[in-house]
Structures are given as structure tokens and as C-alpha cells.
Amino acid sequence: MAKFGIVKFVTGVVKAVSANGVERVLHTGDKVLPDEVIVTADNGNVVIEFNDGMTMDLGRNQQAALNEDALVHQNPVEPAAVQAATGLHGEVAAVQQALLLDADFDPNKALRATAAGEAQAADDSAEPRPEGNKGHGAVFVVEYNDPTSQPDSGYDTIGINFGFPPPMDVLILNPALASDAPPFLEIAPPDGQGGPGVVHEKGLPNGSDPTSNAHIVSGGKITVGDPNGLSDIKTITIGNQTFDVGGNKLPTLVGQTIPGTHGTITITDYDGKGTYTYTYTLTENVVDDFHTTNGNPDPGQNPDVPENDGFHVTVSDKTGGRAEGDITIRIADDVPTAVNDTDTIPGGSFDPATGNVITDAEGDGGADTQGADGATVTAIAGNNPGGSALTPVGGGTTVNGQYGQLTINADGSYSYSRSAGTPGGVSDVFTYTLTDADGR
Predict the structure, then answer these.
(1) Which superfamily does 176-332 belong to?
(2) What whole-number distance in Å separates Cα of residue 218 and Cα of residue 266?
(3) Could you read off the pLDDT of 341-383 as tens digits, one per residue?
(4) Where are the domains of the chain?
(5) Does residue 110 contact residue 102 with C-beta atoms inside 8 Å?
(6) CA angle 48-50-53, nearest 5°?
(7) pTM value?
(8) Which of 3, 204, 254, 378 has an alpha carbon within 20 to 30 A of 107's alpha carbon?
(9) Are 251 and 277 in contact (CB under 8 A)?
(10) What's the rounded Cα separation, in Å, for the pair 120 and 13?
């Protein structure tokens, strides 16, 4: 019966070559036919199971022809025993049976050549077949009582040659932590009623709203730090005062008050991590020089420029590194407010009417608000027909009305005289201008 086989296992490149030279690459499950030659490449290995139950295992660089001569087992002593063996266990059983039947049985001659070494010649002569399996190079025999040998393989073995670089004098895990890194400083303005860092003159004791405390702002932040730690900070300068905080004395700034041009900064708290809290208090009104001429109010000057109070802040460390910043406080002006005044001359009387438009000395409820900068009357005009135009007020200025004359001073004091022959039941109206020290 013609034999055919099925590829049960294959690795690498294994080919089947037909009698007429046609090649095909074998894969698991492929069928091999009689008279084909199975050829394995350098990386090839194949296991073929035949239809009679026998198997064939070819290693790398082998070839086998699927003809009757190649597929009949070569055991001359007990061919039946060896041919009946299938797989590894069957082959072992056949060898054992042959040894029992024949004391001269030589398994090395009866069985297939091993994967190592060159194959037996076809005529059982001492000459090996050139196409035999050359499975590997050297084979080492280790004596049981002396399990030590010096292998001599075909490849050079070179020990690992790896050296570590010499250690650095200074190991810097974070470049920012270099010893000469400077300190840093962050400044946040305090909260104010008119915005961050804004105080108002109106909150001063002589301001227009002294109970508002608008001249005080709190919650400002000063944060200091150093890449080498807070202990590396040596001094902190705020305004014109320098504080020695070396040796972990940063908390000693709490309670310190630093004067500025128009107010003071007070350090109120320290969080232990480099952040201070401060309060600014305006201590005086600020005269806007842009609205004065030779120290006197001058409304004709350019628009108001906000007044500021400033503190320069410097942080230095032990290596001389520095960080700088500024605290800027804006001072909102307190402007005056004029209130209408009313005075009366009894019917038939020509006695003068006197009073003060600022202080309401006449008691008609017309007191003005001067604001923190103070205020004076700077101009007067008669509104009735025939009245005087707007006239600057100096040390007693007289202007005409429709029914009399008004004399007024810068401090708001006045005297009105009724002209002879004027009717009663009429009013003379005058408009005055109130201006503070900022020229507003």
C-alpha cells in the first residue's frame, strides 16, 4: 500500500520536492505523497505521521525520500518489533523487546541516526553519508565523578567589560537647587473699597466719611522664598527699614510698622511658610500738586493724577542673591461738596444779611463738606439780570446782584447789602465755587 503522510508539526522552512522537481513549502496539516523528497532548511524541523501509524521527525538541514526503501525500518534482527513501534514509547518498547530476543542486538546500528553527528552510510559501511544531519558542533562528555570540563566552543567568549564613571563632586538632582540660586519674592496688594490697593481720604478723621475706615486696607501679601530653603534668607527690606531675619527669624517681622510717604504698612501675620499679611493705613491727606499753583488751588490745571504711596521691597540671601518688588497704594481723593444756602432780610429792612456758606453760620442747613483736603470759596457770580460774571474770590470780593451787593471771603463768610429803593418779596441769587486743596 502506498504511503502518504500528514504534517503534524513544522517550524522554519521545510519543502516537499516532487519527482519532476516541483517544490512546495509545507505547513501544518499539509499532505506529503509517495516519491516526494522532504528537505529541511537551516532553521527547519518537521514531524510527519504516515497512514500506517508511523512518524518521521526531520531536523534542520536534512532530507528524506518518501519511497519504500526509506520508509521501511532497518532493524535486521527484529523488523516486526521495530516497525510496529509508533512514537517515542513504541520505539523504546521495540528496542527493549529486541534486546531480550537477541543478546547481540546493537541499537546503534538498528535505529535511526541521532540528530547529532553524521548519518550512517546506506550500506552500513564506516563511511558516512555526506547529506547526514550535522545537528550541532561540539559534544561535551562530563565524567560522573569529575563533573568539571573546559569547553572549547566555536565562538569566542568575552567577559562583560563595563565601567562606571567616577562620581561627581556635587550631585545636583534639581538644577534649581544650586547653592547660588537667588531668592524669590511675590507681592499681592490688599483689598480696598475702590479696588485692590486703593485707600480713600474720606476715611480720615477730617474726611467726608470718617466712620467708613476707607483709609485702611488689609489683606495684602508678601511671599518670600529661596530654592535652598527659607533658612537661606538673610534680610528683608521694606521701604527704608531693613530686618535681619537670618537664623529662622522670619516670624519676627509680625507687628513691625514701616512708615511710607503718606501712611504706614503693618505686618499682621506670618504663616510659617514664607507668606506675610500686611495692612496699609493712610495717615494724612494728599495734596495734588497738579491742581495747585504756588501752593494755592488752581482749578485750571490739568485733570487729576492719582496720588500713590509706595514701598520698595528687597529680599537677600546668604550668598548675596536678591529679589525685588514694589508695594503700590493708590490714594483716592476726597472731594468737597457744596450745599445751597438761604438767607433773609426782613421786609422794609436794609440791614445786611451775614453768614458763612461753608459752615452754615446762619443756620439754614446749608453746611458744605470740605473733604480731607479742606475747601475754600474760589469764585462767585450773580445769577440775576445785571449780576456780575464769575469773579475769583480773594480777601473779600464784592459782586453785584439785581437788588444789592454781596461781599464774600475765601473762608465762606459773606455779607449782603440791599440796595435802596428795591422792592420786597424778591430774591437775589448768587453761585459760588467751592474748591479743595487739590484744586477740585
Answers:
(1) Immunoglobulins (2.60.40.10)
(2) 9
(3) 988 988 888 899 999 999 888 888 888 888 777 788 999 998 8
(4) 1-72+113-157, 176-332, 353-436
(5) no
(6) 115
(7) 0.51
(8) 3
(9) no
(10) 25
